[in-house]
Specification:
This protein is α/β, with parallel strands linked by helices and 229 residues long. The protein is 32% helix and 22% strand.
Length: 229
């Protein structure tokens, strides 16, 4: 079977975290000290309950009076008095955080983690173990590291793992070219039904950006009847 890098392979294991009661200024110091843009908030059992990001902190800062505004300007500002002030008035991580925390598991694939980030519109995911405790953090940048693989490594995996080990195809039957993660396949496979399988397996190889092919088949086993018969 093909071996893919998982969230556990890519995540940061030494995760900076804060408690529910961590103060606003302390959170700012943590972000600055560790050069990060967000930090998980954990409970007494080290289980993530939310995430505090720079955006959360700036949302609070944006509600502060601007010295250039006139008296009463803040009260008349867009969004003032609309019931969203609780978070802006918070002074601890529990009130400032975005919750609940959207988490990943170490055995997740890159695709699963990326889809979760996209669905929830977040830039990072705390990673938890079977007990829900924090064991890592995976970011968009971490997931993109799979695309740093060399073309040579991608080509070797396609030939050795996809074609030979998985599909039992002779390595000389299919030509494989890889250029900046873009794969081009040529040659032939034994059966026509294998063509989409080859393409899909190649697309799933870590680091592959796209797959183009001009594959022929020795036999047509798709059951398509010739036109006019």
């Amino acid at each position: 079977m093909l071996q893919h890098r998982t969230v556990g392979d890519l995540m940061t294991r030494s995760v900076v975290r804060v408690q529910r009661g961590t103060l606003f200024t302390e959170i700012v110091h943590v972000l600055q000290e560790h050069d990060i843009t967000a930090v998980p908030v954990v409970d007494a059992e080290d289980r993530p309950v939310g995430v505090v990001s720079e955006a959360d902190l700036l949302a609070k800062a944006s509600r502060r009076p601007d010295p250039h505004d006139g008296p009463g300007a803040r009260a008349n500002a867009p969004g003032a008095g609309n019931g969203t002030g609780a978070k802006h008035e918070a002074t601890t991580a529990e009130g400032l955080m975005t919750s609940p925390a959207v988490c990943a598991r170490p055995d997740w694939s890159v695709v699963e983690a990326a889809r979760t980030m996209e669905e929830h519109r977040v830039k990072r995911l705390p990673v938890v173990d079977d007990t829900g405790r924090l064991v890592g953090l995976v970011s968009r940048g971490d997931l993109l590291r799979v695309f740093l693989r060399t073309d040579r490594a991608i080509r070797e995996e396609i030939i050795e793992d996809v074609l030979v080990r998985t599909l039992r195809q002779p390595p000389s039957a299919v030509g494989v070219e890889v250029n900046h993660g873009q794969v081009r396949l040529s040659g032939s496979v034994r059966r026509a039904s294998l063509v989409p399988v080859v393409v899909q397996l190649c697309q799933s190889v870590d680091g592959v950006v796209s797959v183009d092919h001009q594959l022929a088949a020795e036999t047509d086993d798709t059951g398509d009847e010739p036109s006019g018969s």
